[in-house]
Amino acid sequence: MRVVRNIVILTGAGVSAESGIDTFRGGGGLWEQHRVEDVATPEAFARDPDLVLRFYDMRRSAIQEKQPNEAHFALARLDREWRGDLLIVTQNVDDLHERGGAGRVLHMHGEHLNAWCTACDVRSRWTGPLIDRPACPACGERALRPDVVWFGEIPYRMDEIHDALRHADLFVSIGTSGAVYPAAGFVRGARDLGAQTLELNLEPSQGSAWFHESRLGPASEIVPAWVD
Ligand code: BJW
Fold first, then answer.
1. 158 lines ligand 1 (CB under 6 A)
2. 202 is in an annotated binding site
3. Which one of 136, 179, 197, 218 is at 20 to 30 Å from 27 when CA atoms are compared?
4. pLDDT tens per residue across span 82-136
5. What would the DSSP string read from start to end of 62-74?
6. CATH 3.40.50.1220 residue ranges in the chain?
7. Is 189 near ligand 1, meaning CB less than 6 Å away?
8. For the domain bounded by 33-65+111-148, which CATH number is listed?
9. What pTM was computed for the model?
C-alpha cells in the first residue's frame, strides 16, 4: 500500500445532519417536502422564481442559526495538522466546515451565503433574503439568484477537483448518498488511479461497493474516531 501524503475528502449532507440541517434524501429529507423539479433546477427558477427564492431564503436563514458539530471540528483539526496536500470537497452549501475551522474547503455545489448576479456574473456575500429582488452590489441590476448548483448545471471548480483526485493517495467520502453525479463518480476515479478509498456514513451509500473500506455510524462519532 502506498504511503498516504495527499488526501481528498468528499462531504455531503450527512456531515451536517447532526447540526440540525436536513439531508436531501431518505425519511424526513428535503426532497420529501419539495419536488426537485419544483425548486432545484434552472427550469423551476424560470417558471416560478418566487417559490424557488422562498425555498432558498428559508434555508439560508435556518443555516445561520446552526453550529458545526464534532465531525466538522475533527476535519478542521486534520486540515490544520496534515502536512501533505488535503482538500475537503463539499457538496454542502452551508458554511459549517469553515465555521468549524477548516481552511482547505471547496464548495462544488456553491454556497447559500453567496448570491450570483445573472446580469453581470459577479458573486457577492449575501446573508439576507432574495425574495424582494435586492439590487446587485456590483451592477445595481435586480438579477440576483442563489449561488448554488442546480440539476443540469455544471458543478464548480471541476478542474481543481480532478487534479486533486489524480494526486490523491487516500479518498474519503463522508455523509453522502452517492446518488448525485459527478461527485458520486469520484470514488471510482480515485480508486482507478491507485488511491485507497474509505467511506464514513450512517448506512451503505449507493456506491458502497467501490470503497476498500466502509465504517458505519453517525458522523459526529465515526469522523473524530477516524481522524484521531
Ligand atoms: C449521515 C448522517 C449522520 C445522514 N452521519 N451520515 C450520470 C448518471 C446519471 C445522471 C447524471 C450523471 N451525471 C450527471 C447526471 C445528472 C445529475 C444527477 O446526478 N442526477 C442524479 C439524480 C442521477 N447531476 C447534475 O445535474 C449535476 N451536473 C452535472 O452533472 O453537470 C454535467 C457536468 C458535470 C461535470 C463536468 C461537466 C459537465 C449537478 C448536480 C447538482 C446537485 N445540486 C444539489 C442542490 C444544491 C443546492 C441546494 O442545496 O439546494 O446538491 S441536489 C442535492 O444532492 C445537493 C447535494 O449536494 C447533493 C448530494 O446529496 P448528499 O449530500 O449526498 O445528501 P443525501 O441526502 O442524498 O445523502 C445524505 C447521506 O448522509 C445519506 O447516505 C445518509 O445515510 C447519510 N447520513 N445522517 C453520517 N448523522
1. yes
2. yes
3. 197
4. 999 999 999 999 999 999 999 999 999 999 999 999 999 999 999 999 999 999 9
5. HHTT----HHHHH
6. 1-21+67-109+154-228
7. no
8. 3.30.1600.10
9. 0.96
